[in-house]
Amino acid sequence: MLRTYLAAAGSSVLKRIRPAAAGPLSRVAGPESPRRTETVTADPQTVAEFCRAVGEPVRNTVPVTWLHAQGFAASLSLLSAPDFPAPAMGMVHVTNSLTQLHPVRVGDAVTATVWIDAIRTHPKGTEIVVAAAFDVDGRRCVDERCHYLAKGVRVDGATPHDPAERTPFEAPDATMSWRLTPRTADTYARVSGDVNPIHLNGLAAKAFGFRGRIVHGMYTAARALASAQIRADAFTWDVEFATPVVLPSTVAVRVAHGSALTTVDVWNPRDGRPHMLSSIRTESGTENGTENGTSNGRQ
Amino acid sequence: MTQSPQPTRPAAILGGNRIPFARAHKQYARASNQDMLTSALDGLVARFGLAGERLGEVAGGAVLKHSRDLNLTREAVLGSALSPETPAFDLGQACATGLEATVSIAQKIRLGQIDVGIGSGVDSASDAPIAVSEELRGVLLELNRAKTMSQRLRAVSRLRPSDLAPALPDNGEARTGLSMGEHQAITTAEWGISREDQDALALASHQRMAAAWERGFFDDLVTPYLGVSRDTNLRADSTMESLGALKPAFGRGLSATPTMTAGNSTPLTDGASSVLLSSQEWAADHGIEPLAYLVDAEAAAVDFVTGSEGLLMAPAYAVPRLLARNGLTFADFDVFEIHEAFASTVLTHMAAWESEEFCREKLGLDAPLGPIDRDKLNPNGSSLAAGHPFAATGGRIIASVAKHLKETGQRRALVSICAAGGQGLTAIVEA
Amino acid sequence: MTDRYTKLANGPLKALVKTLGLPSPVPLRRHSDGAYLSEPVLVLGAGAAADAYAQILLDNGFEVRRKPTSEKLSAVLAFFDEAQEPTDLSEIALEIGGALRGLVRCSRVIVFSRDAHISPERPADTDPALNATRNGAVGLMRSLAHEMRGGSTANGIVVSDGVPMDAPSVVSALWFLLSSKSAYVSGQPLHVTTAHGEAATAEALAGAHLDGRLAVVTGAARGIGAAIAATLARDGATVVGVDVPQAGDALARTMNGIGGTALQLDITAEDAGRVIAQRVGEPIDILVHNAGITRDRMLANMEASRWDSVIAVNIASQLRMNTQLTEAGAWGSAPRIISLASTSGIAGNRGQTNYAASKAGVIGMVAASADRFAAQGGTINAVAPGFIETEMTAKMPTLTREVARRVASLQQGGLPVDVAEAIAFLAAQSSGGISGTTLRVCGQNLVGA
């Protein structure tokens, strides 16, 4: 994985100096673009370690956040491909959308298929949509779309697109408080395989413009999903990353259960600015929480 | 409600003993849970002349518990003057541990499983367990499992210097990371409990407990320990002015004005308590006149994780169920012993029982339970004055309220204790 | 608290102590060393009582000699009960003298006599010569006690007119004085005034003679009170120990050590007696008023609080408790009340006007209460300890403490158990003929002699 990052960094540097050769974007993005496919077995020990790290209970089903991590290396290598028109390093994960149709069980052989779904315009640069599908025995279990922003990068031929407005956020009273430390990032890097230096090295983080090491956005998202305690087999999970969490920090959290919608928001308790907003939509509201629970759910 | 035709017999509360409660990191700083529990048991044994006696069972527990104390209560029994043939078991229900221990002994007596037993509890916030960090623990366990040198090296390579720092226990909720005070601050704000009401309740607690000490009420409920002969948190000279001068300690991050201070919240405390219970026959055989009887108990729990209910609101749900099962209303009670985790917990419970909306929508009642006469509330003070060594509070309350009933000739008392994890345990004590 | 001098004088410095003629205290035999010595007992006197006691001793397994002998002896019993004239004393007195060299360590001389009337209130027909003879026997005993060596003691048993010489309590007193339980009692006349009480054998009195009796001991947490509680429990009593709540931890430890029950109570409380009656919940057979305090100060500097607290604890509380327990009908059959007096209450002590007033008060109280308790078959007595090795006396200045120890005939301080043994003896069923008296446990301390 580190090698992938080094390759990504190398190709990123090259692309800054000499942009990738222009060609039809359909060769690198969209339904016809190349796919990376890899089959991994959800080893109980490995999945358990991941669960412990993000606060998921260790049980017989595999958290979708673990599946995400299995597709990540493939997506990084796609983004770092020489003919990919934007540098992978410096891309920011802005939103993530995932649907679980059926749960994956530990011991299952999961086939992860990853491709670039779209390259579209964005007011601040270019948005790249990475798609991942996770199948077990030919049955689709999980579909995922990861939205990355390449700031200040213009790609000719990008699909015109108006991104959704950021959800307005006013900090509510917290129902939880998390202490996040550099060790949190170390541990998540180990269990997820995402060894991006901005999470692991203060100097590297500063080089990319952060005040210090920042925690993996997907860690925050994974822990939020774990806190929501979704017991439904099928759900859709939307995540919006707002500002990074510089380590160490104590963040404020609110989990709010509605009948079919659970929201988990994470923000900075000092200035009220959001770090991450997420929602989980289930088929029916009977799976979790109370019917009459308070909800500040965003429709 | 179960339809149990099994005949039961009354479980008598014969008396209790505790050590004076002391603020953390003071007089009992070097005493362990086992030391304090043993001392509380020894005082009880002496009070009832039970040296060398084999009792049916001793139940006990601690909230802040060392991993080595897996058999805490049994070890305390072995160190006490009781017969070493007295069995014991540990249990835990956070701050309700002491009451649950007492209830479980009472139920065993009611069922005829044992004739006599002790319910007990202890907690030291001073001699608290310190664990290695989760990371170091993981590495050590991994090392233990490793079979080859390379596996060992891989395990050790994960270690960082910061992992060597010890992990201190805190009273944060495991699932939310918020302290109990922060949780209660949310509830307090939601119910709009005023600072003045909270301070007044704290003042009454101190004044009533000071008066009880003064008239010798605790002479046969407490045995001195390590040179302490009265609860050290007790401030007989508290005033509304002195309480009013304290700065808010919780809820500063909330939108509402913070109202909870160190004065209307319980401090971390060390202490241990025990209650002797038996069948009527055993009491008569030993020439002991029961103080009262433990009649029934009801636990409740709420979903605080999502914020749909306050962390410490469970007793508000337990009490109506307990009343309904026993066909009682507030009018049938002479005494209300509501554990003062914070002044505002007591006040929110009472506000909830007075609220038509809460009673209708949350409790499903046609009418509110109604108000509680403040003169009947915690007549000898409670945790705000005595302090609150978590698992020791139940035993303190049960022994005190049983004696209070005996002393005053009153008939019935309601006991209520809120606990971490969104739980609450309530009980009925009758003369 | 340890008497280092006694250890040295019986160890490395033994020769030096002897050469210099320094006090040479010996370790006393106590109950834990065995109740009675095995050497023969010499019984002196030709009357019926002497004969009767020779037989009683034989019946109880003692070896008896009726004539002076060159054998080693464990005790000499001298019967003066039939002496009429002062000149009648000489024969037996000289025989005692002749036997002294044959006495083993920690042996006993016990002088039996009839009661002399020396208080102004005496029967009108008291014969002066007879009265002189009877009182002479006590004088002889007192001086002899000063002359005893090697941990041996001399004591008297003084029997009132009309009470048979072999009344249960006379025999009971003999067993006590003969035994190691009376180790620190010397120079004392024990008055038997009635024929009440149940006869007991020497063996019975050395065993669990308080079986089935319930005893309440005040001030039982530590020191003499703890020893009293332990001794009563050893002798079979069920003990309820009372002490102030502040001493509750020590009280619990003491009670758990003897299988007793702890009752935390301030005995100066207005209703202490009623509380005790209610808490104990069953008939009280034995009550030991042991709780006491000192608040020493020269009278010129005495504060009211010091005076009042001593009176309140040491005597006023006892009077009130006795009354309340009687009113509550709390006594068992033939109750035994034993109150702690002090040699200070007999002789007075500088700086202790308050304490001496309270302790002399105790002596007065028991004397005046005897008739009331006799009505329900009970007795009330006092025990006056001399210098006893306790936490309290350990705090005395070294020189004062050394003097206090050596001015006793036994040349050492007593132990708390010595006081406790005297109390257990007075609590015995067989001691029913002894009431209204004060028994000193002082090693025949010069103070108040």
TrEMBL record, chain A:
Signal peptide: none annotated. Residues 279-299 have a biased composition (Polar residues). PANTHER family: (3R)-HYDROXYACYL-ACP DEHYDRATASE SUBUNIT HADB, 3-HYDROXYACYL-THIOESTER DEHYDRATASE HTDX-RELATED. Belongs to the enoyl-CoA hydratase/isomerase family. This is Acyl dehydratase. Residues 272-299 are annotated as: Disordered. It comes from Brevibacterium yomogidense. GO terms for cellular component: fatty acid synthase complex. One of its GO terms (biological process) is fatty acid biosynthetic process. Gene3D superfamilies: Hotdog Thioesterase. Residues 168-258 form the MaoC-like domain. GO terms for molecular function: fatty acid synthase activity. Pfam families: MaoC_dehydratas.
From TrEMBL, chain B:
It is an enzyme of class 2 (transferase). One of its GO terms (cellular component) is cytosol. Keywords: Acyltransferase, Transferase. Its EC number is 2.3.1.16, 2.3.1.9. Gene3D superfamilies: 3.40.47.10. The keyword Acyltransferase applies. This is 3-ketoacyl-CoA thiolase @ Acetyl-CoA acetyltransferase.
TrEMBL record, chain C:
The keyword Ion transport does not apply. Keywords: Oxidoreductase. Its EC number is 1.1.1.100. InterPro entries: KR_dom, NAD(P)-bd_dom_sf, SDR_fam. Residues 213-391 form the Ketoreductase domain. It is an enzyme of class 1 (oxidoreductase). Signal peptide: none annotated. GO terms for molecular function: 3-oxoacyl-[acyl-carrier-protein] reductase (NADPH) activity. Pfam families: adh_short_C2. Belongs to the short-chain dehydrogenases/reductases (SDR) family. This is 3-oxoacyl-[acyl-carrier protein] reductase. It comes from Brevibacterium yomogidense. The lineage of its organism: Bacteria, Bacillati, Actinomycetota, Actinomycetes, Micrococcales.
